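[step 3/7] fold_predict: job queued, chain A
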Amino acid sequence: MSKSNPKKVVISNTPRAKVETQGSRKSSSFFGSNEELIFNKENFKWTGISLLLIFIGMLLMTGGSMPNPDTWDPNIIYSARRTVLAPIFILGGLVLQIYAIFK
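[step 4/7] structure written:
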């Protein structure tokens, strides 16, 4: 007997003994499992909504090029859309993602 593949003999009432190796037993197949998943449809719905909010926040933060390269306008770069509204969307999406995971 090799040490890498120990055999286990199971005694039964039938005339033949059943021999099992440790590697031959499988708990269940990937697609044929009847176990309940951790996340259900509602969790994935909240996850999708939270990812959408994060994406909208990133889109609100984009841009900021100057119309004329010789001038500097701080109102374009530091607008309320980029400094207030976009971070609110991103943080809201992250909070909603945490809710979706723990639900």
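[step 5/7] annotate
The chain has a mean pLDDT of 80.
The radius of gyration is 29 Å.
exit 0
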